[in-house]
């Protein structure tokens, strides 16, 4: 079907069809926990003093088409991506060690757990006959939406066969024939990663021995609680493991590291049962990823307490740093030393080439190089962005402004810039979304596919104990969100139909 | 343990324990669909124009103790109760036939489906050594809360073993040791009843043949949607049956009875897909039970259209009438003709006696009778209510006001009154509830246990095709609700721990 699949999708809805779908999606969300706490701009604190109200997560009425080749490539590469950052740790750790060596304490836990999500677009420039997979971002901390994403896939799957055997919930459309979203095992995969770490932690290091548990560290005023609770429920009901949630602001009050014990086990005393003690096998951070999570010295102290403990961290500070954009840029560089190969020394060169293909092409502007050619031609410049070589080195220059800009600066300055191909999502993609405030909005959209992966490795030696791919996330945004429009915008959870 | 179990239950909560339990219950409710739409007094329409907000169903923090003997008796008797009303239909039908004969049309569907709930209290008068089971009400239409009740049992069961293997969600209490609420199969049982009727309906009676479906007929502004959707989901996902929900106000617009077809199949055209036609096998009424559901002639017309169609009704008009209090009073009468026996002619006399024991004792005030003795003695009168023999014959006289009242009227009038023993729930029962608006309230409570049963029978001959018991409901009300208190009251879904 190619690009044309987007042009007549989704099928139009008459008012009765729209009313039915919206009502069904609203009710389904409540019944199945596809929910968020409402934003304060929607429900004021005064009118919900006890915080009981909840509303549907923003969600599309239809699954979005996605190229099968891109989906398969993304899932195939995930376990390679999972491994990519293991040795990057060494690189980043030079920075970290400056601090670490001051303390001169060393690590007591060498196992490290990553729950990752690699985000892609189906790059579909107008001159390409087939779409290709391009990475937008690689998340190494608090990779979210696995819980709710599985629910959206279930919602759309049910709607596609509703009522069973006589589907009429959606108007008919060729894309719906014998087609359902691929299985979405995000909850199972992410929970299995945590359970594997818990098991690898082994017996209690305390004397006397304590029961071990997994600790979710979460933000104050979290609205996305039910996404986290999907993993919590799987760990509790399927893996039968003790799991607790703790606000990051409460870490210092309710956890401690036994300084008398060289293994430094992390002890958790639940606020509601302070006489009970659990030893934390695995700390799962759903916080501490943004500067706004560190408001006081206490927050840094709390993070440090977790880090120096024997608990397996998901992620470690090093692993979080390894996920920074600057590292990913180094990996993506086509020119210069082959960092990618050095970090994945045991990987099949063919697979490495496929991995590299998911990076957006980058070029320097050296004389007679391809980059210079692409940047100076207004037609090809239109698909690119010009970025300064170093962070903070200037503003990005977009598209057709590039030739003019280059001509306005001395040619000797050109080497400070690199040219990157812009990722071009399918231009005709459309969908309809039910926002959390109940507004239903349709229009042109940009879809981002996330693929989940989990890895458990031993930092001492780099041995990989567990490396899995499983589950995905489709997020669909109204195009005008990126252009600064707010009033009519939406950013929704979605699912996919492969074509 | 006897009555004493109530005196130190539930265990007291300190502020941290209470905060933990309330947060856990709030979040669990959202994640698992233990939800209602908020009352307009809590969330005004203006602040939720699209009706997306939802909140937890009112729910107790703790399961309530309930005497095991009473629970077992209630479940044991349910299939007998299910049958009780089959022949009562004949009795009531004399009234109905007056109307029916005018139309002179007759029934085209002789199968009748009942989804019942028999409500009881654990009658615990201070002079009794053991509690006994007394029926409060027998519901024959729209027996609700089966869906949410199963969830409350799951919630309390999970809390009792949370985290798995090291339970600390509740303070410890002897009643919690190796004790969980009994299995609650309300969703499975009620759905199986509907699925059995659907199957018994058989092939389409239309030409050409149409796919058959179950139709839930529901009220406008229903807040208890997610209770209904639990059955809907079970029918769709487990039984794989087409199910639709339709507002009672839309019956005449979207259903029709083919007058040219003597079988009178009920045809449903979904508003969102009017070109699709389904033949309704089974109509499940979650409306039409109260006078307020019949606002216009159109509502009566709609009910009549369903009634005269070939669809199996749950319930039929006759069955709904049979559930009226007046009929149940006739059955309960100790004196006079033995209606109970005549309606259950094939029932073991021993079982019949057990059934009769669940009725609150009723006495006439004949000379030298037990009733007169109980009514005139202030001590025994205190456990009774004096009711006029016929509906509308006067107001009830309660407790110690009875002797004085009788002495104020001529003895010749006494025969117009009957004396009924009041049901005395355990006086020391207490619990804590989270209301839908988030208020947490504790105090003295009255608990009512409902037991679900389903029956499918053929009105032509009275043959029973299906008769099952399964699932239960515990509803717990603050005592002051019954005394007219509103501000501090609650009425909550609950579960039980047997003792």
UniProtKB/TrEMBL annotation, chains A, B:
GO MF terms held by the record: ATP binding; glutathione binding; glutathione synthase activity; magnesium ion binding
The UniProt record lists the Glutathione synthase substrate-binding domain at 212-322
Instruction: Describe which pathway this protein belongs to, using the record's wording.
Output: Sulfur metabolism; glutathione biosynthesis; glutathione from L-cysteine and L-glutamate: step 2/2
- Give the matching Pfam families: GSH_synth_ATP, GSH_synthase
Q: Report residues binding ATP.
A: 137, 325, 387-396, 398, 420-423, 448, 477, 483
Among InterPro entries, the record links this protein to: Glutathione_synthase, Glutathione_synthase_a-hlx, Glutathione_synthase_C_euk, Glutathione_synthase_N_euk, GSH-S_sub-bd_sf, GSH_synth_subst-bd, PreATP-grasp_dom_sf
Per the UniProt record, which EC number(s) apply here? Answer: 6.3.2.3
Which cofactors, if any, are listed as required?
Mg(2+)
The record's comment on cofactor binding reads: Binds 1 Mg(2+) ion per subunit.
**Catalysis: reaction(s):** gamma-L-glutamyl-L-cysteine + glycine + ATP = glutathione + ADP + phosphate + H(+)
State where substrate binds: 117, 141-144, 222-224, 228, 286-289, 475, 486-487
Q: Which SUPFAM superfamilies does the entry mention? A: Glutathione synthetase ATP-binding domain-like, PreATP-grasp domain
Where Mg(2+) is bound, by residue?
137, 139, 391
Q: Which UniProt keywords apply?
A: ATP-binding, Glutathione biosynthesis, Ligase, Magnesium, Metal-binding, Nucleotide-binding
Provide one Gene Ontology cellular component. cytosol
What general EC class does the enzyme of this chain belong to? Answer: ligase
Family, according to the entry, reads as follows: Belongs to the eukaryotic GSH synthase family.
Q: How does it assemble?
A: Homodimer.
Name-wise, this protein is Glutathione synthetase
